[in-house]
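We were asked to recover a plausible sequence for a given structure. The inputs and outputs are reproduced exactly as logged, with field labels preserved.

PROBLEM: sequence recovery
POSITIONS: 521
GIVEN STRUCTURE:
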C-alpha cells in the first residue's frame, strides 16, 4: 500500500478505535435495562441531545449525497432541499420536542415511537404498535442500506479495493459497535461525530475554494454552465445511453438550463416535513433529562444544521470548478467530497476528514439499526407475542434482529451504482408521511382517535409507495417528491376518519389536557 494511503488508514483507524472505546465504556450501563439500551434512561444533556440528533439524522448523504447533487445539477436542487431541511429542523424542535418529551413519559413511560403511539390511544389490541413497528423495519432497512453504500464508496475509493468487500466491512463494523453499546454509546459518539462532520465540511470547503482560485473563480465557472448557479433553473448534463456525461474538448457538455418552477420548489422544500416523523430525532426529544433544556438544544441543533447544509452545497459547486470532467455520472458525483479531500489535504489530515464521512455514516446507521431492532423486540416480541418476556429476552431478540436487518441492508447495498441521495429520499419520505402527520395530530389535536391514527399511518405509508412507483412515473405535474402528497393524504385521512368515528374517551381527553397544561400528575 502506498505511504499516503497508509497515513489515511492510520488516521481513520485511530478514529474508529475511539468510537469502539465509547461503545465499551457505555456497554455496562446500556445493558442494565431495555430502557437504558433503547433510550439511555432519559438522561441525556442538551448538547448531546442536539448534536446526536442532527448527526444521526444527516448521515453520509450530507457529505456525499448533497454535494453530489450540487456537483451534478447545480445550486437549485441542493439549495432548496437544504432550505427545507433547515426550516424543518427548527420547527420540529420548536413545536414537537417539549410536548413529546412530556407526553411520552405520561403515556406509560413509552421508550419507543410505536410504544408511544399505542399508549397514546390506550390500545388493547396493539394494532398501531405493530403497524408502526413494521414500517420502521422497512424504512430503516432501506436507510441502513444507504449508509452501507456510503461505506463501500468511501473505502473502495480510498484504498482501491472492491466496493462489495469494503461495503461489507463497513457494515460489520457498524453492527458490532451497535451490538455493544446501545443508545447511550450511540448518542455519546454521535456528539463527537457531529463535531467531526462540521469541522471536516468547513475545512474542505475553504481548502477547495482556495485551490479553485477563490470564490470569484468558482462563481464565474458556475455561471458559464447554463442553469448551474440559478435558484429557479437547473443544469442539464448531457449523457450517453449509460448515463455518463459527454466530454468535448476536455469540457463537460451541458444542455440548455432546465426549469425549476414553483411546484418543483414546493416539492423540494417538502423535505422539511420529514422531520416530524423521523424516529432517530424524535427519540432524542424523549431521551433528554429535562424538558426545559430542549430550548438550548434547539438553538445548538439549528446552528449546526444551517452551517453544515450550506457548506455541503458549496462543496459540490466548488468541486465542479476543480474537477469538471472527473466525475461523470450521478453515482460518481457523490465522491466529490472524497476527491477534494484526498487531492488537496496532507494524507494524515485527509484521513481525519475521511473520518468525517465515516462519522456521519456510523452515527446514522447505528441509530437506524437500533431503532429498527427495538421496534421488533420491544413492540412486537414483548408487546404482542410474549408479554411476559424479560428485559434480557428483549435485548437478545433485538440483537438477533440487528443481524437480520443488517444482512438485508447489505443485500440492498450490493449495487455499486446505487445513488445515496435517491435511497435516502425514499426512506425519508416513508418516515415523514407515515409518522409525521400522526405525531402532530397526536400532540396537538384532542379529537384524534385510534381509528384516525390507523388510517393516517396506513394511508401515508402506502401513498409513498404508490406515488413513487406509479403516479410520479407519469411525469409532468405529477413529478412531485412523494413526501408532499403522502403527507397531505395522511392528514386528510386522520381528520376525516376521526370525525366520522367515535371521539376519544374522556380519560384520553383528560390526559391530553394535562399534557397540554404541562402537568405530569
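RECOVERED SEQUENCE:
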Amino acid at each position: 500500500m502506498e505511504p499516503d494511503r497508509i497515513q489515511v488508514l492510520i488516521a481513520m483507524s485511530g478514529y474508529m478505535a475511539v468510537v469502539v472505546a465509547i461503545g465499551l465504556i457505555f456497554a455496562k450501563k446500556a445493558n442494565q435495562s431495555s430502557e437504558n439500551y433503547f433510550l439511555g434512561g432519559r438522561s441525556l444533556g442538551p448538547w448531546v441531545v442536539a448534536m446526536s440528533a442532527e448527526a444521526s439524522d444527516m448521515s453520509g448523504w450530507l457529505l456525499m449525497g448533497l454535494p453530489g447533487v450540487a456537483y451534478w445539477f447545480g445550486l437549485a436542487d441542493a439549495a432548496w432541499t437544504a432550505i427545507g431541511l433547515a426550516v424543518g429542523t427548527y420547527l420540529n424542535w420548536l413545536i414537537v420536542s417539549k410536548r413529546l418529551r412530556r407526553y411520552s413519559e405520561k403515556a406509560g413511560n413509552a421508550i419507543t415511537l410505536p410504544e408511544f403511539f399505542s399508549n397514546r390511544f390506550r390500545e388493547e389490541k396493539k394494532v398501531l404498535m405493530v403497524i408502526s413497528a413494521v414500517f420502521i423495519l422497512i424504512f430503516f432497512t432501506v436507510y441502513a442500506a444507504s449508509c452501507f453504500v456510503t461505506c463501500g464508496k468511501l473505502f473502495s475509493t480510498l484504498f482501491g479495493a472492491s466496493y462489495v468487500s469494503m461495503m461489507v466491512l463497513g457494515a460489520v463494523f457498524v453492527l458490532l459497535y451497535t451490538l455493544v453499546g446501545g443508545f447511550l454509546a450511540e448518542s455519546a459518539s454521535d456528539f463527537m461525530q457531529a463535531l467531526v462532520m462540521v469541522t471536516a465540511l468547513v475545512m474542505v470547503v475553504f481548502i477547495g475554494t482556495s485551490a479553485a482560485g477563490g470564490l470569484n473563480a468558482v462563481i464565474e465557472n458556475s455561471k458559464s454552465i447554463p442553469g448551474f448557479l440559478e435558484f429557479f433553473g437547473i443544469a442539464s448534463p448531457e449523457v450517453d445511453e449509460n448515463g455518463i456525461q459527454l466530454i468535448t474538448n476536455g469540457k463537460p457538455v451541458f444542455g440548455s438550463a432546465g426549469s425549476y418552477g414553483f411546484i418543483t420548489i414546493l416539492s423540494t422544500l417538502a423535505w422539511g416535513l420529514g422531520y416530524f416523523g423521523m424516529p432517530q430525532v424524535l427519540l432524542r426529544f424523549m431521551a433528554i433529562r429535562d424538558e426545559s433544556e430542549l430550548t438550548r438544544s434547539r438553538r445548538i441543533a439549528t446552528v449546526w444544521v444551517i452551517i453544515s447544509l450550506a457548506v455541503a452545497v458549496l462543496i459540490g459547486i466548488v468541486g465542479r470548478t476543480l474537477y469538471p470532467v472527473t466525475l461523470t455520472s450521478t453515482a460518481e458525483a457523490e465522491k466529490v467530497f472524497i476527491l477534494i479531500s484526498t487531492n488537496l489535504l496532507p494524507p494524515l489530515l485527509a484521513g481525519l476528514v475521511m473520518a468525517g464521512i465515516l462519522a456521519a455514516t456510523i452515527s446514522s446507521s447505528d441509530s437506524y439499526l437500533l431503532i429498527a431492532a427495538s421496534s421488533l423486540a420491544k413492540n412486537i416480541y414483548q408487546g404482542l407475542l410474549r408479554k411476559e418476556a424479560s428485559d434480557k429476552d428483549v435485548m437478545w431478540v433485538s440483537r438477533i434482529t440487528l443481524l437480520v436487518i443488517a444482512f438485508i441492508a447489505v443485500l440492498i447495498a450490493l449495487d455499486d451504482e446505487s445513488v445515496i441521495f435517491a435511497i435516502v429520499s425514499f426512506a425519508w419520505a416513508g418516515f415523514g408521511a407515515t409518522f409525521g402527520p400522526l405525531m402532530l395530530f397526536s400532540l396537538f389535536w384532542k379529537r384524534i382517535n385510534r381509528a384516525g391514527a390507523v388510517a393516517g399511518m396506513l394511508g401515508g405509508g402506502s401513498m409513498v409507495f404508490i406515488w413513487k412507483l406509479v403516479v410520479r412515473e407519469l411525469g409532468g405535474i405529477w413529478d412531485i417528491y412523494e413526501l408532499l402528497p403522502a403527507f397531505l393524504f395522511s392528514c386528510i385521512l386522520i381528520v376525516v376518519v376521526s370525525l366520522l368515528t367515535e371521539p376519544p374517551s374522556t380519560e384520553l381527553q383528560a390526559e391530553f389536557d394535562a399534557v397540554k397544561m404541562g402537568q405530569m400528575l
